[in-house]
Amino acid sequence: MLYMDSTTHTIETLITETELKVIVATLAEQIYRKYHNQEIVLVGVLDGSYVMISDLARALSRLGMNKITVDFMGIDTYGSGTTSSKDPKITKDLKHDIRDQIVIIVEDIVDTGYSLSVLQALLLARKPKKLETVALLSKDARREIQVSVEYIGKHIPNEFVVGYGLDYDGKYYRELPYIGVVKFS
Ligand code: IMP
Ligand code: MG
Predict the structure, then answer these.
(1) Least confident stretch, 18-27, 35-44, 86-95, 139-148
(2) Separation of CA 119 and ligand 1 centre (Å)
(3) Phi-psi region of 49 (alpha: psi -120 to 50; beta: other; left: phi over 0)
(4) DSSP assigned state of 37
């Protein structure tokens, strides 16, 4: 696929739709095994995880979990451009009180780890019974800060990826049903 912008680039498929389905189903099984008879709150990190949380919540439902609250938190780390800012901003807060709840943060990708560490600290201060994180992707080589991620879908190399919720330049490619790597020419 080719998109004409200020820079010309192509998107190379890294994770197909079929593989994404398997990855999300596997993550759901891990969460199900641990929490199937309990109530959980899924916290989707906006904007990137809207696709992931939607598929994950339905995968949990198919497994038989029915006490799931879906909530969202907005955290802005990138603005436009492809390098992470170290001063993330909370742009939308949760609707629900998570005190004494089992809370699972749903992230699209963990890169440097800064946004997740900010979010984890913020949510821990609200005294949940348990706080865990599920991430579809992890770029381990880019990690600058230690964060715990209990469930990881796939470890990927240090390349900028788009699709399945992940954007390029704050706008494009979130709608791709697969994950691709942006290649500049
Ligand atoms: P971190 O704070 O550096 O870990 O950045 C995490 C956030 O940056 C993720 O939740 C994504 O929204 C975004 N991000 C990191 N890497 C990529 C990428 O390769 N493509 C698109 N967004 C990314
Ligand atoms: Mg994100």
Answers:
(1) 86-95
(2) 14
(3) alpha
(4) T
Give yes or no for residue 107 CB within 6 A of ligand 1. Answer: yes
Q: Is 169 noted as a catalytic residue in this protein?
A: no
What atom in ligand 1 is closest to the CA of residue 78? Answer: 8
What is the Cα–Cα distance from 126 to 160, expressed in whole angstroms? Answer: 33
CA 37 to centroid of ligand 1, rounded, Å: 32
101 or 81: whose pLDDT is higher?
A: 101
Three-state SS string over 56-75 comes to: HHHHHHHHCCCCEEEEEEEE
Ligand 1, atom 20, lies closest to the CA of 161
Specify the pairing of strand 89-92 against strand 40-46.
unpaired
Give the contacts of 103 (CB within 8 A, at least 6 positions apart): 40, 41, 43, 123, 128, 130, 131, 132
Atom of ligand 1 nearest to the CA of 139: 16
Span from the CA of 110 to the centroid of ligand 1 (angstroms): 6
Alpha helices in 3-161 (DSSP H): 17-35, 50-63, 114-124
Q: Render pLDDT for 67-86 as a digit per residue (tens, 0 to 9).
A: 999 999 997 765 444 455 55
Is the full-model pTM beyond 0.85?
A: yes
Give nearest CA residue, ligand 1 atom 15. 111
DSSP letter (8 states) at residue 157: -
